[in-house]
Amino acid sequence: MSKENVIFDNEMKVVNAELISSDMRYQRQVSGRVKKIASDFNPNMVGCVILSQRDDGTYWVVDGQHRVRAVIIAHKNDPTVSLKVNALVYHGMTPQDEAEMFAKQHDNTKAPSKPEFFKAKMFAGDEGIAAFKKATEDENVICDFSNAGKKDGYLVCYGAAYEIFKKKGEIEYRNILSILVEIWDGDKNSLSGNFLKGMSLIREAYGSNMNMRYFAERLRKVPIDQIERHAKTLDGPVGRRYALAIVTAYNDKTKVKKLDKSKLL
Asked: Which one, out of 12, 79, 117, 159, has a CA that is 20 to 30 A from the CA of 200?
């Protein structure tokens, strides 16, 4: 049997978080995510961490480093928070064995996509996600967390759309979706994050100075791939590139009511 297929003895234990060390020869640097977990600490979310108890009796974290550190910070902020964590503890591992398990653990772990994350939050009763879904579908755009993909009539980039919804509010989010649907009739590419960001910047730059109906009428004559090709030739953040490409196409289609592109720079 190869070394990587050795089954190490293990047991479930409750371990004090302050007794758990991290071997930075293979562990990741602790990120700001720790403070986020600690600031909104929920002991139910700690779950079960994976530890190695070495021959000298010390505990070393293999998986769950951020959660262990969050428990310690949460306890310092509020001493009523217990330092005890549930752990699957392995015995007989070398640091190299730990590193191999760490690598395999993370190689086999895939973070949920945004639609999968939103699906879970929706089922959990998150009011913000429910409002986002309703606002999207009220503009005749399908918001299907279970069947996400690049299809006509479906929202494509859930992450970008939700950020706009949170930042701009429901009314402005719906205005952005509405104008995109009016121009390109739900074309799958027009409901991508690039177009959402671009139209959001256009609305922000020109706002009430725009005649949206006239703007839409001019752009209906523009193939969506023309916008995409032009945006790819420009420099800068993707939202601004798409905003500039859309405004350029609009200006080319009108002799009056041209928009000043410098407002986007």
From this structure: 117
